[in-house]
Structure formats: structure tokens, C-alpha cells
Specification:
Length: 252
């Protein structure tokens, strides 16, 4: 249990870049003494350093959104290309912020007429050249590390938009823990979207599977299609068959 909590705390610190001990105490619902012991172990990892009142990621160890985008870029583009085939003219869709979902618009015809809801800066910028795409932006605070906007109230989504298709990203994915994310503010948007959209499409390369992070924003059985480069074993295939989930595996 302690080892798993330490892994989750590391994920949380990597996402936030700097956290206070008080924030860790409240987030993980353990005592301050427990957090201090956990942090003492965590800072033996060369990615982290103790600072006054908290813990930070060492500057040379930060992995930027741009660098994460470059990693497995060809795979991410193939997944996005396959996802784009699911979009039809006049759709009202949601595109999540992520290093794979950001490529979806690269594979749409320039004259397509549709509506996009997003919290992704990259999607907003790419949509500029599409004269017939209408874009609605969610969120009221910009998060530089993920180039996304966060901070919403539920009625921004549930009372206004009938989303036909949601193209979702995840930090980690598993049968037991579903679709996961390590940031609370992004979690809120993702959860509301999944609860609202008629169809959920998960874009995730094989590196995301069988990992765990802090927050589950949706169970895996809420997904309609999973677009990936992963070859699934019988455990996953049986689960997909039982839950009527369609896996789409791209050729690399």
C-alpha cells in the first residue's frame, strides 16, 4: 500500500511540478508525519528535490508537453488519423487535451462543417484554418504544462451541449481502474464530458495501459471504442466482448 501511494505521489508531483506537504496531506488523506516519511523516500529518486515546505521536480527532469508529444509521435498520429475517420459532417464533438488527440484535426478535410468543444489550446489553434468549424472553449484557467484550459462548472457542459462523440485522452488505462488522470481540475472536465457524451472514444497508445495514477475519471466499460496500437490479450478481449467495446488497432 505504501509503495503504491509513493508511486501515486510521484505521479502527482510530476504533474504539478511543485507541491506543498500540506497539499499532499490533504490530497492523499494521510497524516503529516506519514507524508514526511513518504517524501523522505521520494526524494531519493533523482527526479525530485526537497524545497522549503514541499517537493519539486528538478528543472532538468521536467517532461514538457512538447517533449511528450514527440515521444511515439508516429504512433500518436496514426491513432489520431484513425479517430478522424469516425467524424462526420455536422457532428458536435468534444476533443480532449492530449498528446494524441491534438493531431485529430490534421486528418480532417478542410471544408468539413461541424462543431468542436474542447479545452485544448492546440485544437483551438489548429481549428483556425477550418472556415466551417465552430469552436467552443471550456475552462477559465490556462494550464501551461498540458496546454489546456481547466476550471469549469458542470452546467457549462450538461445544460448546453448535446455531444455526439467525445475523443478522450488518459494518463493511464486499465480494466480495474478505468481511464485515469492525475490532475484534479482536468479530471472534473473529463468526468463531466464522459457523463454527457453519447459516444466515448478513447485514444491511447500501448504505453498507457496497465499503469495507475491518482484519479479515475471513467470506468473502462463506459467506452464505445478504443483506438490504440496495443495488441490486447484474451483478458482484455473478453472484457471488450462482454461490455460491447470495439478495439481499433492501428498498423505501425
Amino acid at each position: 500500500m505504501k509503495a503504491k501511494r509513493n508511486d501515486l505521489i510521484k505521479e502527482y508531483i510530476l504533474e504539478k511540478e511543485h507541491v506543498t506537504l500540506k497539499e499532499l496531506e490533504e490530497t492523499f488523506n494521510v497524516s503529516m508525519n506519514t507524508i514526511r516519511r513518504d517524501v523522505a523516500k521520494i526524494i531519493t529518486d533523482p527526479r525530485f528535490e526537497k524545497v522549503y515546505g514541499g517537493v519539486s521536480v528538478k528543472k532538468n527532469k521536467l517532461i514538457s508537453f512538447e517533449n511528450r508529444s514527440i515521444k511515439n509521435k508516429e504512433v500518436k498520429q496514426k491513432i489520431a488519423e484513425e479517430a478522424a475517420k469516425l467524424i462526420q459532417p455536422h457532428d458536435l464533438i468534444y476533443i480532449d487535451s492530449g498528446t494524441t488527440t491534438k493531431y485529430i484535426l490534421d486528418y480532417l478535410p478542410k471544408d468539413i462543417e461541424m462543431t468542436i468543444i474542447t479545452n485544448s489550446l492546440d485544437i483551438v489553434l489548429k481549428a483556425e484554418v477550418f472556415e466551417k468549424i465552430q469552436v467552443f472553449l471550456l475552462g477559465n484557467m490556462f494550464k501551461r504544462s498540458t496546454r489546456s484550459f481547466v476550471g469549469i462548472t458542470p452546467d457549462q457542459i450538461t445544460n448546453k451541449y448535446n455531444i455526439s462523440k467525445a475523443f478522450m485522452a488518459a494518463t493511464a488505462v486499465s480494466i480495474d481502474n478505468g481511464m485515469m488522470n492525475s490532475d484534479l481540475m482536468e479530471y472534473e472536465i473529463k468526468k463531466h464530458i464522459v457523463d454527457k457524451a453519447a459516444n466515448i472514444y478513447l485514444l491511447a497508445d500501448k504505453s498507457k495501459f496497465e499503469k495507475s495514477t491518482l484519479l479515475t475519471y471513467a470506468s473502462l466499460d463506459q467506452v464505445n471504442k478504443i483506438i490504440t496500437d496495443k495488441d490486447f490479450d484474451t483478458t482484455y478481449l473478453d472484457f471488450f466482448n462482454d461490455k460491447q467495446i470495439e478495439p481499433i488497432t492501428v498498423d505501425i
